[in-house]
Amino acid sequence: MEPRRWLAAAVLMCVLVLCSGRELKAKDAPTYDPALARTLAEYTSAVYTADLTQLFTWTCERCGDLTEGFEVIELIVDVKNCLQAYVGFAKDMNAVIVVFRGTQENSIQNWIEDLFWKQLDLDYPGMPEAKVHSGFYSAYHNTTLRDGVVSGIQKTREVYGNIPIMVTGHSMGGAMASFCALDLVVSNKFCPQSKIVGDWKSSMIGHNPWEELEHLKINFRLKDVKLMTFGQPRIGNAVFASNFNRSLPDTIRMTNSHDIVPHLPPYYQYFPQKTYHHFPREVWIHSVGLGSFVYSIEEICDGSGEDPTCSRSVSGNSVNDHIHYLGISMHAESLGHCRIVTDDRILQYNMDTAGNIVLFKQPGLSVNELHSAQ
Ligand SMILES: *[C@@H]1O[C@H](CO)[C@@H](O)[C@H](O)[C@H]1NC(C)=O
Ligand SMILES: *[C@@H]1O[C@H](CO)[C@@H](O)[C@H](O)[C@H]1NC(C)=O
């Protein structure tokens, strides 16, 4: 009898574990993939490379490992605003990857101090009551980045098909990545006007032109956009966060231990309608255990965006925790400037009147072909 009882107890234990496991999933529906987080952290680390040729040809020190074989299609450098982003094709993931660089100032400390005073000063277009910070918004919407990124995505998808898009970034780059992902999902002006008119004209014969135009507009509202950011600041109010949550339900916002930036601009618990509010879903990397049994876990937080038991449960006082994620460096090898190093191996580049540069190539062309084409 005794062994049977043990068996029954064991079966009961298993059932309990399975049930609670299932319940957790049904309630929380976390879509966190730790392997994807590591891969995207490496893509994000690479965007800090100063040598644009190495970055563009994917030969930089940080290009490789989990990101081996990546093909950069477009590299955008906004010289005036000191911003950088790239778009390309990851064969192993069969996805477009879009990566934004964080702030590149001499002193990250100044930028962080400045974050304390950011006001919610802009109504997000077409989203009643949703407020955001105009500086973060403009860094994506009001610079060369938006056009460059959109054109890079289009070029990649023209060749590789309507594959999923993964948007990522660290710090200020995470804020820009968030506005980009939202833009791709909600904006019906996503496609440059000339392209819409061109496609429309060539396909209008025998069709109702207005129907055709509507059809095209809807098509430019992209599906299959995913966002994962690292150590990003808050960018909008609670209404914005809940709209964001609806538009991009699978978003993951990584925070690391005592990283100061996710605590900024501040969240004022007693003024929930007036304050900044993170969108979900936070995944908090932190250490647990005691003595020699300390290990790092990635904790999936609740759906509120402001889980009091995650990074908000500790003081955000570390810059060092801001510049290392999952053991991967998230800052430039050399300190802050906007150095442009390039050579004539790059096939094509455009410079606008403000001196901004977009490097691009035809998707599918290999780096060796790129070299021999010169
Ligand atoms: C975008 O830039 C233009 C010109 O530089 C400026 O007038 C406008 O206020 C900016 N918009 C936002 C939202 O900052
Ligand atoms: C986000 O969406 C989930 C699922 O619909 C919901 O439970 C959660 O409360 C939402 N969070 C916010 C901040 O809107």
TrEMBL record:
Keyword Signal included in the entry's annotation: yes
Matches recorded under Gene3D superfamilies: alpha/beta hydrolase
Domain Fungal lipase-type stretches: 97-267
SUPFAM superfamilies the UniProt entry points to: alpha/beta-Hydrolases
Domain of life per record: Eukaryota
Keywords: Signal
One example of a Gene Ontology biological process annotation: lipid metabolic process
Span of the signal peptide: 1-21
CDD domains (UniProt xref): Lipase_3
Pfam families: Lipase_3
Name of the molecule in the record: Fungal lipase-type domain-containing protein
